Structures
1.
Amino acid sequence: MMEAMTTMSPPSPTRRPKAINAVPLRHPWRVTAAIALILFFVLFVLDSATRPAFGWQDFAKYVFDQRISAAAFITLQLTIYSMALAIVLALILSVMRLSPNPVLNSVAWFYIWVFRGTPLYVQLVFWGLLAVIYPKIHIGIPFMEPWVSFPTTQAFSLFWLAVIGLGLNEASYLSEIMRAGIQSVDHGQTEAATALGMSWAKQMRLIVLPQAMRVIIPPTGNELIGMMKSTSLVVAVPYSWDLYTRSRDIGIEVFNPVPLLMVACAWYLLMTSILMIGQHFLEKRFARGTTLIGGTK
C-alpha cells in the first residue's frame, strides 16, 4: 500500500487560462455620422460668416447698444417677477389639488384646465383689454355702493399686466410639477411626523418639501427658461420694451431685421445659460446624500 502511494506521480501544476484577446467593437456608422455632423457644422459656420444677409457688422454695432441692454434687463425683470408670482400661486394650487375638500380640489382643477388649455398669447391679449372690459375697479361690498372706485389703467401699468398674465399662466404648469414632487415623498414619513405631533406646516417645511425639491427643481428650471422666452409674447398686452420687441423695432428702423434678431438671440442665450448654471448648482445642492446618474454623490 505504501509502495503504491510512493509510485504515484505528483499532481500537475494548475494551468493558467490564456489571456483573452479582446477586440473592441467597431462602429463605422457612428464615426461616419460624427464626421458628417462636424463637417456640416463647419460648413454652416463658414457659410454664415460670409453671407451678407446676417449683417455681422450691424450685429457687432448693436449687440451692446444701450437700448438692447436696457430691454434685456426689462426681460429679466419680467421673468423674475412672473416666476415669483407663479411659484406662490402654484404652491397654493398644488395644496388645493391634494386637499380632500372637493370644493378646493375642483376650483384648482378648473383653474389649471383653463390656463393650460388656452394659448398664452390669447390670455395676454385679454389682459391687454382689461381696461376695456373693466374700465373701473370698485372696492366695497357687492351689490352696494362701492367704497372706492378708480380707473383700471391707474391701478395696473402694461408692465404689471404682462407680469400677471405670464405668472397666472405659468402657475398652472408649476402646480402640477409641485404636486408630483410632493406625491413622490413616501407617505410613511408624514405619518411618522404626525405621530410625533408635528403640525402640517412643519411637516411640509422640514420633511416633505426638502425631499420633493429633488423632483421639483429640474422641471421648474426648464419652466423658468421657457418663461424667459415667453416674455417675447408680451407685445400682445401690448408692452413693447422687452428684448425681442425692442430689437425688432430697431431692426425695422434700420431696414435690416436679421442682425437685430441675431442680437436678441445672443442675449437670450446668455441669460438662459446663466439660469442653467444656477439650476445645476441648485440640483446639486438638493441632491446631496442621493446617488446621481453616473454613480457620483
Note: Residues 292-297 have pLDDT under 50 and may be disordered.
2.
Amino acid sequence: MHIDRLTAPELRVLGCLIEKRFVTPAQYPLSLNSLRLAANQSTGRNPVVDYDTHTVQAAAQRLCQYRLARLASGQSSRTVKYRHLAAETLELDDPALALMAVLMLRGPQTPGELKGRSERLVPQPSLAAVQTSLDELIARGYVRRLPRQPGQKEARFSELLGGAGDDGGAELASVALSESAASPSVPPASPSVPPASPSEPVAFPYAATASVDRAPVAGPMPGPATADADGLEARVSQLEDELKALRSEFAELREALGG
C-alpha cells in the first residue's frame, strides 16, 4: 500500500506518535485521547489544528493499514492505544526519525532549526550530522530541499510523505513568482472582437439567459419604473416652459435697450 501521500491528519498523528515515544516514554503507547491532545497542541505545531476524536482515530487506523502504526492495547486494557512502526517500515535510525517527526509537526525548516528542535527528541551530534541525515532522507525520497527564496541565507527542507505539501507548494509558488517578476513578461494577447456593423444589433451576454414563461400582460404594468418615467417627463416639460419664458423676457429686454 502506498504511503507517499499521507493526509494532514495522518502526518500529524504519526509525528505525534514518534515525538511522544521519545519525549514521554512513560505515557507511551498513546491512548486515543492522549493522541488527540498531542495533535491539537498549541506549542511545537505548525499549523495549530483542532481535530476531533473521530478525525484522529480515523487517521490512526489508516496508519495501521499502512504499517506505520499498530494497536498496542493490552488484553486487560479497555483503552485503545497506538504505537508507531515508522522506524521499522521506513527503516530509519533514531536521529533521522526525529528529524522526520519535527518536519511532520512543524513544516519546512532549515538544518539549524531542525537540529535545535529535534534534540529534545534525540541528541544530534552536530549540524553536519543533521545535514548528512537530510541528504540520506533526500536520497530515499522522504525529504526534499526547497528552492532558496531571495533574502534567505539557508535552504529549507520539507518532508515528502504527504506529497508536495501545502507549505512546500507555497514556497515553490513564491519562488516562481519572484523569478517571473525579475524577467520581462509578455502580456497575453486579448481575443480580437470584430466591431458590430451599424445594421446589426449589439449582442450582450445577458441575452443568452434562459427564458422564463410569463403570463401575457394586456398593458403596461404600473410600478416604480413607470412612476419614475412619468416624473421625468413632467420635469422636462417644466424646464422647457421656463426656458421659453426666459427667452421671451430676454427679447423684451433687448427691445427696451434699443438692441
Note: The CA atoms of residues 236 and 242 lie 10 Å apart.
3.
Amino acid sequence: MKKIQTLLFTVLCGAIVGTALQVSAQPSRPSRPCYATVVRIQGDVSYSLGDSNWHPLVAGKYLPPGASIRTGENGGADVVLGIAVNFPQADTPSRIGLAPDAPVRGMISYKPTAEQNAIRLDQNSLLTIDKLTTTDTGADTVSDTELNLKQGSFFASVKKLSAAAQYIVKTPSGIIGVRGTQFSIVLNGNGTIQNVSVFHTTNDEGLILSMTSSSGSTVTQVVSEGQMYVNDSGSGKLIAIPASVIQELQQAFSDLRTIYGLVSSFERDNTIIYESPDFGSHR
C-alpha cells in the first residue's frame, strides 16, 4: 500500500505539472542514457530521431531517448528498453552478422538480459521515448523511463523496480504510473484511453491511471492484476479481463519472455538470428 501511495503521488504531480518527480536521494554517480534496442520487426515500421524524417526500422537498431517508432497497417515491433548491449560478451554469440542498416551496430539481433524491460508496439501506433536513463547509486540501480504513446496500442513487461525508480507512460489524455507489471494500453482514434489491462503484477502493485475527465478534473484509478479499466463514453469502470483478451495477453507476454532471455538462437548463413514466435493477432 505504501508503494501504491508513493506511485499515486508521483503520477498526480506528473499530471499537474507535466513532468515526472525527481528522486529525492542524490546519486553517487551521474545517470547514463539507455537505448531502445529493436529486436523484432513485422510489416511496415519506421523511426524518427526527433525530426520530421522517417526511416525504415530494422532489427538490431539502437534508438536513443527522443526517438519515435511508428507502425503501419499490420506492422509491429518488439523492443527492449535498457542498457545497450556491448559486444563481445560472454553470453553473446561468437559471430554476429552485419545488418542492412548502416547505423545498426553491426548485428542483426541479440539476447537481452532478463533484467531489462520489453515492449511490443502494435499496428497503427506511434510511440516516443521521452526519457530512458539509469543511475548507479552504489547501493542500487535506479532507472527512469518515460514513454509517450500518441496513438495505437502496446504491451509492456516491466521488471520489479527499485523504490526510487520510475516508469511512466504518457498518453494524450492521461498518465500511467507503473511498478513491476505486465500490462497493455489501447487508445481510441482521438488519443483518449480506450482500455488498460493488467495481466500480472509484482507484489500486487499494479498500476495507476491519472486522467483528465471531460469536465477538466483529474481522475485517478488503481488497476490491479486481472483487471481491465474500460473508458466507455467518458465514464470509466473496472471489469475482469475478458477471456479473449487474456488469451491475447498470454500470447504477447509469452513472446516477450523469449526476447529477454528465454529464447534459443540458431545459426544460419553465418548470421546469428533469434528464433522467436510470430507476432500474435493485432487488435
Note: The mean pLDDT is 75.
